[in-house]
Design brief:
CATH superfamily: Glutaredoxin
Radius of gyration: 14 Å
Number of strands: 7
CATH class: Alpha Beta
Number of domains: 1
Order of helices and strands: EEEHHEHEHEEH
CATH topology: Glutaredoxin
Oligomer: single chain
CATH architecture: 3-Layer(aba) Sandwich
C-alpha cells in the first residue's frame, strides 16, 4: 500500500557509504528528505542528486537531513558519491528493505533489472510523520522539488 501523508514513516536501518548504520527513527528532531532513485551513475539519477547537492544550503536551513537511497551496494554508492561530490549521505538498500517498506520498487524494470527503487521523494517531519510523498512510475521524471521545498517551509515554521 502506498505511503500517504499523515502516516508514521516506516522505520529502517541502512548503511551509508562509510559503512555506518543509519536508522530513520534516530533522526527524530529534524526533518528528513528521502530520495529513492533507481541506480547510481545513470543520467537522471545523477542530475537529480547533483541538483540536490547544489541546493543543500536550502535543506540545511530547513533543518532537513537529506538521504539518497538506491539498491546499489554501498561500494558503488561510495564511488558515485565521490565522483559527483555529493554532500549528503547515500544509503545502500541492497536488500530492498526500505524500498519495499515505502512501496517504491519496480517489479519489472529496464533491461530485466527487477527490484530497482522507483524514483520517489518523502518528506518526514521531526516527529516521524510523512508530510509529502511522491512516487514516480517513469524513471526519467524528477520529483517536484518546488513542492518538496514548500512542504519543508510549511513544517519548519
Amino acid at each position: 500500500m502506498p505511503i500517504q501523508p499523515g502516516q508514521q514513516a516506516p522505520d529502517f536501518t541502512l548503511r551509508d557509504t562509510e559503512k555506518n548504520k543509519v536508522t530513520l527513527s534516530e533522526q527524530r528532531g529534524k526533518n528528513v528528505l528521502l530520495l529513492f532513485y533507481p541506480l547510481a551513475f545513470t543520467s537522471t539519477c545523477t542530475a537529480e542528486l547533483c541538483a540536490t547537492r547544489d541546493n543543500i544550503a536550502f535543506y540545511n536551513s530547513m533543518n532537513a537531513q537529506v538521504y539518497g537511497i538506491s539498491v546499489d551496494s554501498l561500494f558503488a554508492q561510495g564511488k558515485f558519491k565521490a565522483e559527483q561530490n555529493i554532500n549528503f549521505p547515500l544509503l545502500s538498500d541492497f536488500n530492498k528493505t526500505a524500498s519495499t517498506a515505502y512501496d517504491t520498487i519496480y517489479d519489472h524494470w529496464f533491461n530485466d533489472m527487477d527490484g530497482v527503487s522507483k524514483r520517489s521523494a518523502f518528506v518526514i517531519d521531526k516527529e516521524g510523520v510523512v508530510r509529502y510523498a511522491e512516487v514516480l512510475e517513469n524513471a526519467s521524471d524528477i520529483p517536484d522539488f518546488n513542492a518538496i521545498q514548500k512542504c519543508l517551509e510549511s513544517i519548519n515554521h
